[in-house]
Specification:
Number of domains: 1
CATH topology: Hypothetical protein af1432
CATH architecture: Orthogonal Bundle
Structural class: mainly alpha
Strand content: under 5%
Largest sheet: 2 strands, antiparallel
Shape: globular
Helix content: 55-70%
Number of helices: 10
Oligomer: single chain
Radius of gyration: 15 Å
CATH class: Mainly Alpha
Number of strands: 2
């Protein structure tokens, strides 16, 4: 098992710069961070333990593998992100961000940091907070090039709905309230 070191915000931005993350991806990650912080802090208020430092770093760094995949002509940016964070010594963050596209944790014993980051990412298109419906329409239009891709997106949408349900069973506001609550 790797180190439990979690990068602070300054280090996260240094890593994004080091791996040539374009500004629009940084802006997206900052909005995912706003949603992740809202959810994580709400969970803590309801006495549900989550590691806010891990959520914050993972939200900011969840797409760090995207640009390396683009310039190298392919690959899975979630897996590349985990590899990058592993090399940098931030294994705990890598364990979270490798799950922001496809959750590896299928049983919900408890809502954890990976669920918060996964869901926060599913609520943001570019740098705008949107509904799950809007996010998945965007994914279908952008990535739904064939029936296999459309099936993958449909499965991801069902998973996002399950995660949403699990998170909001614990909270005192609804998914519809997120855009009004994000600063």
């Amino acid at each position: 098992m790797g180190t439990l070191t979690i990068p602070d915000e300054k280090t996260c931005y240094e890593l994004l710069h080091k791996y040539c993350t374009p500004y629009h991806i940084v802006r997206h990650s900052e909005t995912v961070l706003q949603v992740g912080k809202l959810l994580g802090e709400a969970l803590l208020r309801r006495e549900h333990r989550v590691d806010m430092d891990l959520i914050k770093a993972s939200c900011l760094l969840h797409d760090i593998g995207k640009y390396p995949c683009i310039i190298e002509g392919g690959g899975h940016h979630d897996i590349r992100g985990e590899e990058i964070l592993g090399r940098e010594g931030f294994h705990s963050v890598g364990r979270i961000i490798v799950q922001h596209v496809v959750l590896r944790t299928t049983k919900y014993q408890s809502v954890a940091e990976e669920h918060v980051v996964y869901y926060a990412d599913k609520r943001v298109v570019h740098d705008e907070v949107v509904s799950l419906v809007e996010r998945f329409l965007y994914l279908q239009r952008t990535y739904g090039k064939d029936s296999a891709a459309l099936r993958f997106i449909a499965d991801m949408k069902e998973e996002a709905k399950r995660v949403e349900q699990e998170i909001f069973l614990l909270l005192d506001f609804s998914p519809d309230d997120i855009s009004g609550l994000v600063s």
